[in-house]
Design a protein that fits this description.
The protein is of the alpha/beta class and 366 residues long. It folds into three domains: 83 residues, no CATH class; 178 residues, 3-Layer(aba) Sandwich (Rossmann fold), CATH 3.40.50; 55 residues, Arc Repressor Mutant, subunit A, CATH 1.10.10.10. It contains 17 helices and eleven strands. The chain has a nine-stranded mixed beta sheet, with helices on both faces. It has a two-stranded antiparallel sheet with strand order 10-11. Helix 1 crosses helix 6, helix 8 packs parallel to helix 9 and helix 16 packs across helix 17. The termini are far apart. It comes from Pseudomonas wadenswilerensis. One of its GO terms (biological process) is DNA-mediated transformation. InterPro entries: DprA (IPR003488), DprA_WH (IPR041614), DrpA_SLOG (IPR057666), WH-like_DNA-bd_sf (IPR036388). This is DNA-processing protein A. Belongs to the DprA/Smf family.
């Protein structure tokens, strides 16, 4: 099996948990209630229906637990786990991500395709509109590249638009990224990002889901997915969102979970800015630079304050006018710490002063 089991979990108990997980209307809280009441999933499955009813578990879940469909689904999941780069994390596993475990409705099971170790690394979520304008996609990509180069894992929902731009930019920067699905891993949605997800898995990143492997795209599952995006992360950056955007759900969940919420402002005439502006009115931090994000994260890779934005711009642009350089080369030639260089480059890229091609930075004329 590709992912070692928790010491307390035998193969029989794993199969029992997978069967519980497949029951309709159970959900994370009722799953935990059953385990706490009976000690383990195997005992819960063999308990009388009356005991389940006393615990408030819906009748359809109790009736379905011995069905052939549930048994077959658990057996299929066990076979899925035998493949390379396919894993399962359970909430009592020592490798279960600590931030996510803080949630009252933490997923009891997480299916993972790719590298499970990155779920414990410091993460920042970048989310936004599925129909984002080009400037918003460029902004999401620029922030993602800089944050990924600075050591953050970029977490998002693998949706079209801002999510996809953030994932791709993190990969392009040589960083790591996590995609959280609102479907099962065998019912990937949206199909247009299947190649992106495959690249993430191949290059040391991960795609995760709390849903059974064959769960299709059901509207109610996506808000549940959003709590995992925010729950894994130190903070959530909303790049562009309408007032009806699911990104606002992610941001509000983040605030409830005690995470930082950041929003990028936009034109008052653009509908895609209204969601970010509402978040700012509700207390989200208005951000224009990566530095403003990092400064709020209680010293995690805190950047030394720049003497002045103008000085920073001239210093780096002058170096790049002399010759294109890598990020590490700029850090060496400028004498600045790498995080400060990354923050300054992001500002310069957003201003159109520099561009990155094949891993090297170039000064733009003008």
């Amino acid at each position: 099996m590709s992912q070692p089991l928790s010491p307390a979990c035998s193969p029989a108990e794993l199969e029992a948990r997978l069967r519980l997980h497949l029951l309709p209307s159970l959900g994370p809280r009722r799953f935990h209630t059953l385990i706490q009441a009976f000690g383990n999933a195997s005992a819960a499955l063999s308990a009388p229906a009356a005991a389940w009813r006393v615990l408030g578990v819906p009748t359809e879940s109790s009736d379905a637990r011995r069905s052939l469909e549930v048994r077959d689904g658990a057996a299929a999941a066990m076979r899925w786990l035998e493949a390379r780069d396919q894993h399962l994390l359970m909430w009592d596993d020592p490798c279960y991500p600590g931030l996510l475990a803080e949630l009252g409705d933490a997923p009891p099971l997480l299916f993972i395709a790719g590298n499970p170790a990155i779920l414990e690394k410091p993460q920042l979520a970048i989310v936004g509109s599925r129909r984002a304008a080009r400037p918003a996609l460029d902004t999401a990509a620029a922030f993602s590249r800089s944050l990924a180069r600075g050591g953050f894992v970029i977490t998002s929902g693998l949706a079209l638009g801002v999510d996809g731009a953030a994932h791709q930019a993190a990969l392009d920067a040589g960083g790591q990224t996590i995609g959280v699905l609102g479907t099962g891993l065998q019912k990937f949605y949206p199909q247009r990002h299947r190649a992106l997800a495959a690249a993430m898995i191949e290059r040391g990143s991960a795609v995760v889901s709390e849903f059974p492997l064959d769960a299709g795209p059901v509207a109610g599952n996506f808000p549940r997915r959003n709590r995992i995006i925010s729950g894994l992360s130190l903070g959530v950056l909303v790049v562009e969102a309408s007032l009806a955007s699911g990104s606002l759900i992610t941001a509000r969940l983040a605030a409830e979970q005690g995470r930082e919420v950041y929003a990028i402002p936009g034109s008052i005439h653009h509908p895609g800015s209204k969601g970010c502006h509402q978040l700012i009115r509700d207390g989200a931090l208005l951000v224009e630079t990566v530095d403003q994000i990092v400064e709020t994260l209680q010293g995690w890779q805190r950047l030394p304050p720049l003497q002045s934005p103008v000085t920073a711009s001239h210093a780096l642009v002058d170096l790049l006018l002399a010759a294109p350089q890598t990020t590490e080369g700029l850090a060496s030639s400028s004498g600045w710490p790498l995080p400060r260089v990354l923050a300054a480059l992001t500002e310069l890229e957003l201003a159109g002063r520099v561009c990155n091609e094949a891993g090297r930075w170039f000064a733009r004329p003008g």
